[in-house]
């Protein structure tokens, strides 16, 4: 459990790595985000459909795993619909050509809120994947950490430009990422009394659905809003290839 929590915390707080960009780069190039988001989506889609869903099928059977998978998609879709938010994928449209610092700050706050909201299921994903299989949890944590880095950029940049306050930008990035280990602790407290192989199998199926939805709903739309979509395609297949090779070598 400690190992699972540590991995979840590392994955969530990797948003801080992205926020460090404000120390060195004033205007990050869009091509970096193309490759990073595409790579992260490729990793997450590949590991969700091969490893995570596969573990669920092994535990509870094909039919129950598929029901859990689509239940996960339904859960995150309902959250996405019912909770008002502005995800990082909407950052270009809400922050583009804004000179008013108050509006820019509000934009950054909304992006931070959106990142925090969707980090909740990611925390559950890493935690329960790690409980089921340590190697699987490590792969999941790596996948989420990779796409949390550009999320940190998305949160920190508008806040920094609006306030010229690096500390505030770092703080908001930290708060948006810390929701992952918080979600892990809360979900464990709720489920700890009846965790068994069947419960873990159901949770893994749900996790696979969550991660696939996040990839298609957030990562890829953001990447395709940038210039040069060929780099996004390259990033997707590079992510899949790297994850496939890592699974073979582990």
Supply database-style keywords.
single chain, 250 residues, mainly alpha, 10 helices, 85% helix
Characterization of this structure:
This protein has 250 residues and is mainly α. It has one domain. The chain is 85% helix and 0% strand. The protein contains 10 helices and no strands. Helix 3 (30-60) crosses helix 4 and helix 6 (101-132) packs antiparallel against helix 9. The longest helix is centred in the middle third of the chain and has 32 residues, at 101-132. The radius of gyration is 18 Å and the shape is globular. The model is unreliable at 87-99 (pLDDT under 50).
Task: Give a short overview.
The protein is mainly α and 250 residues long. The chain has ten helices and no strands.
Please report the total strand number as a whole number: 0
Q: Which blocks of ≥5 consecutive residues have pLDDT under 50?
A: 87-99
What is the 3D form?
globular
Secondary-structure class: mainly alpha
Give the assembly state of these chains.
single chain
The secondary-structure element order is HHHHHHHHHH
The DSSP helix count reads 10
What proportion strand? under 5%
First and last CA, distance: 21 Å
- Measured as a percent range, the helix fraction is over 70%
Overall pLDDT level: 77
Number of domains: 1
* Radius of gyration, whole Å: 18 Å
Biggest β-sheet description: none
């Amino acid at each position: 459990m400690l190992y699972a929590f540590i991995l979840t915390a590392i994955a969530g707080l990797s948003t801080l790595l992205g926020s460090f960009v404000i120390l060195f780069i004033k205007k990050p190039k869009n091509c970096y985000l193309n490759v990073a988001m595409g790579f992260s989506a490729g990793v997450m889609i590949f590991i969700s459909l091969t490893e995570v869903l596969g573990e669920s099928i092994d535990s509870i059977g094909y039919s129950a795993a598929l029901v859990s998978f689509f239940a996960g998609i339904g859960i995150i879709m309902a959250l996405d619909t019912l909770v008002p938010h502005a995800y990082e994928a909407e950052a270009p449209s809400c922050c583009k050509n804004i000179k008013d610092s108050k509006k820019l700050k509000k934009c950054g706050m909304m992006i931070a809120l959106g990142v925090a909201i969707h980090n909740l299921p990611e925390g559950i994903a890493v935690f329960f994947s790690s409980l089921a299989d340590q190697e699987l949890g490590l792969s999941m944590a790596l996948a989420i950490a990779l796409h949390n880095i550009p999320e940190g950029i998305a949160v920190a940049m508008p806040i920094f430009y609006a306030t010229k306050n690096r500390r505030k930008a770092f703080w908001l990035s930290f708060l948006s990422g810390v929701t992952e280990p918080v979600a892990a602790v809360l979900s464990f407290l709720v489920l700890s009394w009846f965790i068994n192989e069947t419960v873990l199998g159901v949770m893994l199926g749900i996790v696979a659905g969550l991660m696939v939805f996040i990839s298609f709903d957030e990562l890829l739309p953001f990447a395709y809003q940038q210039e040069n979509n060929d780099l996004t395609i390259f990033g997707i297949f590079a992510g899949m290839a790297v994850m496939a090779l890592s699974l073979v070598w582990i």
